[in-house]
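Sat 14:20. Reprocessing the chain from the morning session after the first attempt stalled halfway. Input below, unchanged.
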Amino acid sequence: MSRLQVDELAAEGIHTVLVATPDIQGRLIGRRVPAGRFASILETGVEVCTCAWAWDVEQGFELIGANSVSVCSLHNGAPDVALIPDLTTLRRAAWLDGIAVCLADPVWPGTGEPLRESPRTMLRAEVARYREQGLRPQAGTELEFYMFRNDPHELRLGGFRDLVPTTLTPSDFLLEPGNRYEPFFRRLRENLDASGIEIEAAQSEWGSGQWEMTFVYGDPLAMADRHALYKMAVRDMAAMAGYSVTFMAKPLGDQPGSSCHVHFSVLDDADRPVFWDEDGEHRMSDRMRSAMAGVIDRTPELMAWYAPTHNSYARTAIGDVFDYGRSWGRENRYVSNRVVGHDSKSTRFEFRIPGADANPYLVLTGLLASARDGMQRGARLGPATVGVPEGVNADSAMPRTIGEAAQAMADSDFVREIVGEESRTLFRELAAHEWRAALSAVTDWDRNRYFDRI
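Finished this time. Tokens:
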């Protein structure tokens, strides 16, 4: 990573440091600190309100006002927490002039206790559980998004109508559409690289205006940090170029959804691949089979993390055979858990259920925890699926709405075990609130379908 040292900031032309941490949706929140003062806040941090871990995607205060969650409410006065910089993440935000960024962990002032509701805290704790067992989880995300030839400010003022996609025909893996936007994507790649956000590859996708970038494989916490920074960089640079970007799971009804596929494997403390067995079926070790079985078993309980919005289920629950259900197969894109790799170093599985709208810290926390759970209890993996799985959308355990996901999380002792009762309540309430908001909305679809027909 292109890491900066604190005493290098002035020499590197840095005038401002963004002290940042993910909110409950995975968006980066924090404060801007003059570079000359950054060294003075390393121990005390900068303070932000706990509302960042209690509001919905619109920063609505309904849950806070209803005293539904303990982290921030009318009862506790909406207190502050301190963001303590993680200096291993200090880097240049190269797409912004003279700006550096440093990820931070929220703690309670005075005690230094971590904020348990913080997604970064949750993922850090889960990685530590692996370390305690002499294991090192490895992960990499593939993130899809749609980009339009519309100015983002004007687009919101116009109600997101008259979208002009950057590609007009299916362009999956085709090089020519990318050539037309190479000036933009080259600058993006260069700035990401200079910011320590390592991109493995990029491509145009099948949807009109859809694109994908994959990240270099590695430590899950560093992966989630790069993922969150990448989303901010893409939005910023697209806006500078007069484009609009969305990471909605399903922004267009007649186009495919955008996913966040996650590749996952485990090393032991001697850097040996845990998932490889030369004599195993598909070269899969017993621990790999149990890890994947754990992920499959626990997916319904964690759907509020993997598919966190009402719109998420327009991608996962519409009858498509991709990225849904509880199934696995070798080199099979029709299943939700796809085994890939042909040697000890590359063997892993790809978890295909999460959407581009998901919080990467929560996705990785859920994936790691359920895989660890599967390995610990020796969960048994069912038979592999060849081709299209049958009845995958008839699985009654899989939530088909954010409301059902809220109930699945409410019923989950497993979620309580990995993040605690207060955090489980927070995510249950957040998902239930999202469902209530969706049910109360009257949309163009409603009027077009019913206005003069009933």
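The chain has two domains: 12-115, 127-447.
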